[in-house]
Amino acid sequence: MMKAQPYTLIHLKRVSSTQDWLREWAQMGAQEGLALLADEQYAGRGRLSRRWESPPGGLYLSILLKPEIPLALASRLTMLVSLAAIDACKDIAHIRPTPKWPNDLLAHGKKLAGVLTELHSSGSHLEFAIIGLGMNVNNDFTQSPLHDTAISLKMLTNKHHDVNILAKTFLDALFSRYLTFIQGESPHLEWAQRLEPVGRRVRVEHPPRAPLEGLVTGVSPDGALLIIDDAGQEHAIWAGDIIPV
Ligand code: BTN
Fold first, then answer.
1. Which pTM value belongs to this model?
2. CB distance 105 to 153 below 8 Å
3. What are phi and psi of 163, to 5 degrees?
4. Closest ligand 1 atom to the C-alpha of 133?
5. Same domain, 154 and 222
6. In a domain, 196, yes or no
């Protein structure tokens, strides 16, 4: 059940990972809507257990959600957070990043932000989800090895942005979208409208299965990338490397 004030934001200085801190709080019974924002993380992580560099200047935020949805629909949460992060970038920095399946936000083809959805379930019941948003805000990658692949709001706008205000703007957008989400509305069509690589031809590499080539047509309500191959058969892709061809 949603509270009148849908979230509580706690600001931390330096932590291992806001995901780990929030998981501990969730396991001790924290309520839906608890959000942890850290100035820096020394063990920030991304999808596929990759490291997420988290020096001061970025936004490192995790949110605890307890939607009553089947586990199979939990990837809708990633789409929801991605759309709310786009809302916040538009409001604060007047830029509109492009979501990239399954969890990135891009600007000028470089990574601006990533979403990490971690689920805790018993059987097919979702107990809680911890959703992390990492965004490059005031980071400067001009002298960094990440220069070719990463970009920040400051690099895009030439302005410093207040991470606290950005976090609150994002959470306001998220919880305003969350009201319709918990009533059963799926964000997949809105997300697919802007999604990279919808409308493009790609090759999917997903061993041990044979590579697949085809046109990306959209996203299913449960978050799979939909691809039509040259024989006209539709495939739903859950994981794999998606390479433009
Ligand atoms: C990705 O692109 O792979 C997702 C990156 C998610 C990073 C955020 S930063 C806040 C939260 N804490 C973490 O350790 N990771 C997520």
1. 0.95
2. no
3. -65, -35
4. 8
5. no
6. no
